[in-house]
TrEMBL record, chain A:
Its main location: Golgi. This is Beta-1,4-xylosyltransferase IRX10. Belongs to the glycosyltransferase 47 family. Residues 1-19 form the signal peptide. It comes from the Eukaryota. GO terms for cellular component: Golgi membrane. One of its GO terms (biological process) is glucuronoxylan biosynthetic process. The keyword Disulfide bond does not apply. It is a single-pass type II membrane protein. InterPro entries: Exostosin, Exostosin_GT47. It is found in: Golgi apparatus membrane. Keywords: Glycosyltransferase, Golgi apparatus, Signal, Signal-anchor, Transferase, Transmembrane. Residues 48-369 form the Exostosin GT47 domain.
Automatic annotation (TrEMBL), chain B:
Keywords: Cell wall biogenesis/degradation, Glycoprotein, Glycosyltransferase, Golgi apparatus, Membrane, Signal-anchor, Transferase, Transmembrane, Transmembrane helix. Its EC number is 2.4.-.-. Its main location: Golgi. One of its GO terms (molecular function) is galactosylgalactosylxylosylprotein 3-beta-glucuronosyltransferase activity. Signal peptide: none annotated. This is Glycosyltransferases. Residues 475-490 have a biased composition (Basic residues). Involved in the synthesis of glucuronoxylan hemicellulose in secondary cell walls. It is a single-pass type II membrane protein.
Length: 459, 505
């Protein structure tokens, strides 16, 4: 198995499908990342595509945001910032006849519980209602049944609209104290339910831009674009330390190993991988791992050579973004994960992939990587275009994640002629899906927060 | 059997102890109180109690242990059941509910997975060494990328002489210099001639050293000592000139403390540079020697607390050198130390040598490369003249480059701490022959009198060997209990010297 991993690491070098050259970036030697089609990260999407933004009533976007401004800072804020970016971007066109792609601004991940985690229960209905609106008001949906439309669904399982695990997921940003009331006995009900739901039937033909990425998973369609989770760029850049600070930590990780609220016996959370890391390496001086919440988290990452990015309740995590920004080589422990912009960024050359079953031998794996390979990975990470591609800066800058999304959409052009349906032809089944989804969605101004948390158990 | 299944079903409910009452009611109401019923009731109650204590249902664990075939033994392990906080079992390498995801045959399975632990989850020393090798290599790469390009040799000049505190001070400087990541030449100038004592000490460093003797015993008065040190440094510069050593010259006095950032910063110097020196002239805990940095007019009472005075370059807002930070020692001269071993504060001179850095080519002979503003060596190196600071080498002091973000960073600290000039210590700090005289803490073996000054009469009587040193600052307090067992030695008080210092011991 280790040989296979080595083959995966070294194969791109031999095949030469990804070419890398060393250049002098100022006085720092970085390596240019080029995909098989050239320097796709530095492509400029302007002029290569045109996007039409539907004007939806504000109950789908602005009013929801006004109700809860926390949506602007949590991990799923990409949907809001993408809307703002597209409104003022040169790729936007006001003439829908010349548009290649159509964007529907629905903030489906903005219905937050008191602890800050999004409640996806109403999102399918909200999406349905939005699609019904655009299909009746404009002719472009019916023309292709959504095949030239794209949606941003950054939530846990994308367009399956269900949360992973339980609502008491702990993260750095959200305190879990208040969420202790909510607990489910069965812990994997989140993913199972999401799988049972599947992607919302109405979105089957559209392009989905989501953070969730796992191969051969129901909730990831072919042709979806995977994006990184939102991380506030100013906050990370305010914690930068001088680059000559020597990297003295070998492996660094801060986060949960056991989710005692939801999975006290272990084995469900992270498929046991995080627990395995703890049990195997808690005594190892090379591994600086703990559940602390230090104030110097970002600074410590810049003093580490490897940063672990294991899966949690979902395979993706903001740690990947943080590791890339701070130049720490990400060690990705998540089987079959699809990383952001996988067709533009050669992740095998930048990070280290470890199978979940190889976690007990992580120290052997990491110490046996040749030093030249490690130095090369660090040079690739030092490339500023790599860091830019992971961020959603305000206002948008060239090469950032917004532009990578547009590049991804541009690469899918021109549309196949077959997506255009003949008049009267219907492909989508508008009545598929759970019965609860078919109910109409109405925007309710917040009087008091919808239901007290514990009642969700009985719902 | 029916009751067993009924009990099992009840046991499967999440909080089995909560339902303890209901089966009791059900069975008591219904069936006859047969011994079997009572037995099962008791067993059930017992199980409930155990579950209550443990905090989880152990029935599954029991069934697993009883009925399952062996799972892969090397990969899994079972936790102690008493750990209620941590997960209680890490068993079952096969997932409980095998719902495979997607039609593509993904190997990712939803459900409960085992926690894989290898048989010996401890670090392997060979791997730890490899990891350290990797860290070293990465740091070297970092230094070459972001650190100084083309580092130059550092030449450190240290004046020293044999005395009690020499080992203490010189060890500190030696260790700092050993950690400098650049090439280093250490010129040690010793007053009173080169001795084996000093030579053996600096040989331990492994650095390239030039050990020079200097004729002239180190005087007891601080003023004279400062002057002799300047002459010793000039002598070292003379050696530099003769041997044409190339590099950056810095003055590492043996009692100073240097930060490693200093050595990175001085690589930036072109000809002459100046760094900020923190002056640690603060006496430990006593009222003497409170030296505020700047006399402020609007003195808040809190500001009285000593700010450490700093000597160094002063810059304006455009980072150009406009003057020098120093402090006026005149108000403190009466209270300052006059001779080595005096308990008062030792004051620095206006601008200490330690705060300056030179390019060694400034003292070379060839006329071509030297800039115009440097004086000729022969003008400077005149015997008898006191060269107070390297600024005397320059005709024009405005060309000095301020280092350390224009003097804002204090990169080294100046300190003078010495024992009395006549204090004795075992040679090379090897006790031979073994001690036979011990001294208690309360009574020092020598009188609390100042040593022979050049103007006064006879010499003080010899003092028996002892491990104790009496520093000028009374900061360190010795534990009396540790010394209480030691006996008082023969009387050594000299009646002739009758001056006593108050506030003793």
């Amino acid at each position: 198995m280790r040989f296979c991993m080595w083959a995966v690491l070294l194969l791109p070098l031999f095949l030469g499908s990804f070419g890398v050259e060393g250049i002098e970036h100022g006085s720092v030697r970085t390596e240019r990342i080029s995909g098989s089609a050239g320097d796709v990260l530095e492509d400029n999407p302007v002029g290569r595509l045109k996007v039409y933004v539907y004007e939806l009533p504000s109950k789908y976007n602005k009013k929801i945001l006004q109700k809860d401004p926390r949506c602007l800072t949590h991990m799923f804020a990409a949907e809001i910032f993408m809307h703002q970016f597209l409104l003022s971007s040169p790729v936007r066109t006001l003439n829908p006849k010349e548009a290649d792609w159509f964007y529907t601004p629905v903030y489906s991940t903005c219905d937050l519980a008191p602890n800050g985690l999004p409640l996806p229960f109403k999102s399918p209905r909200m999406m349905r209602s939005a699609i019904q609106l655009i299909s009746t008001k404009w002719p472009y949906w019916n023309r292709t049944e959504g095949a030239d439309h794209f949606f941003l669904v950054p939530h846990d399982f994308g367009a399956c609209f269900h949360y992973q695990g339980v609502l008491t997921k702990m993260s750095y940003r959200i305190s879990s104290d208040t969420a202790r009331h909510i607990s489910y006995r069965k812990n994997n009900v989140g993913e199972e339910k999401a799988i049972k739901r599947g992607i919302l039937p109405l979105l089957q033909r559209s392009t989905l831009v989501q953070t969730f990425g796992q191969r051969n998973h129901v909730c990831l369609n072919e042709g979806s674009i995977t994006i990184p989770p939102y991380a506030p760029p100013e906050k990370m850049q305010s914690h930068l330390i001088p680059p000559d600070t020597p990297r003295s930590i070998f492996v660094y990780f801060r986060g949960l190993f056991y989710d005692v609220n939801n999975d006290p016996e272990g084995g469900y959370y992270a498929r046991g991988a995080r627990a395995s890391i703890w049990e195997n390496f808690k005594n190892n001086p090379l591994f600086d791992i703990s559940t602390d919440h230090p104030t110097t988290y970002y600074e410590d990452m810049q003093r580490a050579i490897f940063c672990l990015c294991p899966l949690g309740w979902a395979p993706w995590s903001p740690r990947l973004v943080e590791a890339v920004i701070f130049g720490c080589i990400p060690v990705i422990i998540a089987d079959d994960i699809v990383l952001p912009f996988a067709d533009a960024i050669p992740w095998e050359q930048i990070g280290v992939f470890v199978d979940e079953k190889d976690v007990p031998y992580l120290d052997t794996i990491l110490t046996s990587i040749p030093v030249e390979v490690i130095l090369r990975k660090q040079r690739l990470l030092a490339n500023p275009s790599m860091k830019q591609a992971m961020l959603f800066p305000q206002p948008a800058q060239s090469g950032d994640a917004f532009h990578q999304i547009l590049n991804g959409l541009a690469r899918k052009l021109p549309h196949d002629k077959r997506i255009f349906l003949k008049p009267g032809e219907k492909v989508l089944n508008w009545t598929a899906g759970p019965v609860g989804d078919l109910k109409p969605w109405a925007y309710r101004a917040r009087v008091s927060l919808v239901l007290p948390p514990f009642q969700l158990l009985r719902a | 059997m029916k009751q067993l299944t009924a009990l099992q079903q009840q046991g499967r409910r999440s909080n089995s102890f909560r339902n303890a009452s209901s089966p009791l009611d059900a069975t008591v109401d219904g069936a006859i109180k047969s011994p079997a019923t009572i037995f099962w009731l008791v067993l059930h109650g017992l199980c409930c109690l155990i579950s209550l204590v443990l905090g989880f249902r152990f029935s599954r664990l029991v069934f697993f242990l009883l009925f399952s075939t062996s799972s892969s033994p090397s990969a899994t392990t079972i936790y102690s059941a008493l750990q209620t906080k941590l997960p209680s079992s890490g068993v079952a390498s096969t997932p409980e509910r095998n719902i495979s995801v997607g039609a593509g045959g993904s190997r990712v399975v939803v459900g409960r997975h085992g926690i894989l632990i290898r048989p010996w989850p401890h670090p392997d020393p060979a791997e730890v060494m490899k990891a350290h090798g990797i860290i070293e290599r990465v740091q070297t790469e970092q230094r070459s990328l972001y650190g100084v390009k083309n580092p130059r040799t550092v030449i450190a000049i240290t004046p020293t002489y044999v005395r009690t505190f020499q080992t203490l001070h010189l060890t500190g400087v030696m260790h700092s210099l050993m950690n400098v990541p650049y090439d280093l030449i250490w010129i040690v100038v010793e007053a009173g001639g080169a001795t084996n004592e000093t030579a053996s000490l600096i040989a331990k460093s492994g650095l390239r050293t030039i050990h020079i003797g200097f004729n002239g015993k180190m005087p007891v008065l601080w003023e004279d000592r400062h002057k002799l040190e300047s002459r010793m440094r000039l002598h070292a510069l003379r050696i530099l000139r003769e041997q044409r050593l190339d590099g950056i010259v810095m003055f590492a006095d043996d009692s100073n403390m240097h930060s490693l950032e200093l050595f990175d910063e001085i690589q930036n110097v072109k000809w002459v540079g100046a760094v900020s020196v923190g002056i640690l002239a603060h006496s430990g805990g006593s009222e003497e020697g409170e030296l505020p940095m700047v006399q402020r007019d609007n003195n808040e009472t809190d500001e009285k607390k000593s700010e450490m005075p700093v000597q160094g370059p002063a810059c304006n807002s455009t980072n150009h050198l406009v003057g020098w930070h120093t402090f006026n020692t005149l108000p403190y001269l009466e209270r300052s130390a006059r001779y080595i071993g005096d308990r008062a504060v030792v004051l620095p001179r206006q601008l200490e040598w330690a705060g300056f850095v030179l390019n060694s080519r400034l003292v070379w002979e060839d006329k071509l490369e030297k800039p115009v503003w440097v004086k000729e060596w022969e003008d400077v190196d005149r015997d008898g003249e006191d060269v107070e600071s390297p600024l005397s080498l320059l005709k024009d002091t405005s060309v000095v480059e301020p280092l350390g973000s224009c003097g804002r960073k204090v990169l080294l600290w100046w300190l003078r701490v010495e024992a009395r000039a006549d204090s004795k210590f075992p040679a090379r700090w090897i006790i031979d022959p073994p001690l036979d005289v011990t001294v208690p803490a309360k009574r020092t073996p020598w009188p609390d009198a100042p040593p022979e000054l050049p103007t006064s009469a006879e010499k003080v009587v010899t003092i028996p060997e002892s491990m104790e040193k009496r520093p000028t600052k009374s900061g360190s307090r010795r534990k009396r209990s540790s010394r209480s067992k030691r006996k008082h030695s023969a009387k050594v008080l000299d009646d002739r010297l009758s001056i006593r210092h108050p506030g003793d011991n």
